[in-house]
Design brief:
The structure is a single chain. This protein is α+β, with helices and mostly antiparallel strands. It folds into three domains: 100 residues, Rossmann fold; 70 residues, ATP-grasp fold, A domain (Dna Ligase, domain 1), CATH 3.30.1490.20; 235 residues, D-amino Acid Aminotransferase, Chain A, domain 1 (2-Layer Sandwich). Helices cover 32% and strands 25% of the residues. The protein has 14 helices and 24 strands. The strands form eight sheets. The protein has a five-stranded parallel sheet. Strand 11 and strand 12 form a beta hairpin.
């Protein structure tokens, strides 16, 4: 087992990893930018190393600084959390070269699944259902027109190196294709330094449902059932729940089996998710694979009583998994609390938190790194807390969330608490009748 793990991340996920490491008797090293000197992950780690100025490119994305921090503290493993370098094949390989265990997928696995066009081809070969569309990257606009005609409108253009909704364009008719092609490539080039595009059939009334998987170094994988992530804004998730209100036992078995097949086909090691789009007829199609721990992993932990971070560490240390699949015994909902103003088009709202009171009680979990007096820097993602409620039924979990949101007091900055409170009263959310298009018609009161 590892003696010391460096967490190459910040905020709540860094603190989350530190907690599990301490329970396992493993020493921890926090890294931080100058903007995060007062963050709780710095305070609770056994050691802390400043790795640069506030800009991510000079700190949390600076591979040389992170490797140096690991070497000077004699860390024998690095946990990347999510975001930043968690799905960076070069960083995974760099850790290996320096004889530091990267707690996550190998560089080869990330290369295989990180490029979305390549991932789709791999999953087709594995026998996992995929959305109809291009076979890999589209060569040029002439090829784009041909693929669109063969696929049938509406279609979705996607950046091969994409993420977070960048470089995506829905196209409903042929005359709009050229403009969409040009603008998507420009956006992709600016965001990722790569303008390769691929195309898929646009799935109407889609649900975004992901399957949590974990694989070991012996080629064995299992799944921990699904999470419904369909409530999104600009392809960014706002709330998640498990089990999905759209799921049936038969569909769960099929999607779970497909996810395990995908993981075992590439001999996947570590925690990850296989993401699917599910249409209104409950046909499901592979969308992408995330080769890291997910923001929303706590709701899975709550309904199956399973520490995913602990399992990540055990797998990385060479411990085999049990091989059994896990199914939800309860219902859990997560609301992402962001420092944003939902009444001003979710505009980011960094600043100083003057008052912080967290809700409590049975079935309430809060993952956060903030406190009264904490200064939210403008340099990073605006998520400041995750509020999770767990109950015997979905109705009870929603009612518990309403109560918890009413108790949650954050003053000094605008947050998305009012949005989530309104969401919990929305008839379509209460009935479970929502798709990825839900936020297009949502109006803040």
């Amino acid at each position: 087992m590892f003696k010391k793990i460096l967490i190459a991340n910040r905020g709540e996920i860094a603190l989350r990893v530190i907690r599990t490491c301490r329970e396992m008797g493993i020493k921890t090293v926090a890294v931080y930018s100058t903007a995060d000197a007062e963050s709780l992950h710095v305070r609770f780690a056994d050691e802390a190393v400043c790795i640069g100025p506030p800009q991510s490119s000079e700190s949390y994305l600076k591979m040389s600084n992170i490797i140096s921090a690991a070497e000077i503290t004699n860390a024998d493993a690095i946990h990347p959390g999510y975001g930043f370098l968690s799905e960076n094949a070069k960083f995974s390989k760099l850790c290996d070269e320096h004889h530091i265990k990267f707690i996550g997928a190998t560089g080869e696995m990330i290369d295989q699944m990180g490029d979305k066009a390549n991932a789709k081809s791999t999953m087709k070969a594995a026998g996992v259902p995929c959305v109809p569309g291009s076979e890999g990257v589209i060569i040029d606009f002439k090829d784009c027109e041909k693929v669109a005609l063969e696929t049938g409108y509406p279609v979705m253009l996607k950046a091969s190196a994409g993420g977070g909704g960048k470089g995506m364009r829905a196209v409903w008719k042929a005359e709009d294709l050229k403009d969409a092609w040009d603008s998507a490539r420009q956006e992709s080039k600016a965001a990722f330094g790569n303008d390769d595009m691929y195309m898929e059939k646009l799935i109407e009334e889609p649900r975004h449902i992901e399957i949590q998987i974990i694989g070991d170094s012996f080629g064995k994988a299992c799944h921990l059932s699904e999470r419904d992530c369909s409530v999104q804004r600009r392809h960014q998730k706002l709330t998640e729940e498990t089990p999905s209100p759209f799921m049936t036992d038969e569909l769960r078995e099929k999607m779970g089996a497909a996810a395990v097949l995908a993981a075992e086909y590439i001999k996947y090691e570590g925690a990850g998710t296989v993401e699917f789009l599910v249409d209104k007829h409950r046909n499901f199609f592979f969308m992408e694979m995330n080769t890291r721990i997910q923001v929303e992993h706590p709701i899975t932990e709550e309904v199956v009583n399973y520490d995913l971070i602990r399992e990540q560490i055990l797998v990385a240390a060479g411990v085999p998994i049990s091989g059994k699949n896990y199914y939800p015994k309860m219902h859990a909902i997560e609301c992402r609390i962001n420092a944003e103003d939902p009444h001003a088009n979710f505009r980011p709202a960094p600043g100083k938190i003057t008052t912080f009171h967290a809700p409590g009680g049975h079935g309430i979990r809060i993952d956060t790194h903030v406190y009264a007096g904490y200064m939210i820097p403008p340099n990073y993602d605006s998520m400041i807390a995750k509020l999770i409620t767990t109950a015997q039924t979905r109705e009870e979990a929603i009612n518990k969330m309403k109560r918890a949101l009413d108790e949650f007091v954050i003053e000094g900055v605008k947050t998305t608490i009012p949005f989530h409170r309104q969401l919990m009263d929305h008839p379509d959310y209460i009935s479970g009748n929502y798709t990825t298009k839900f936020m297009e018609d949502f109006v803040m009161k």
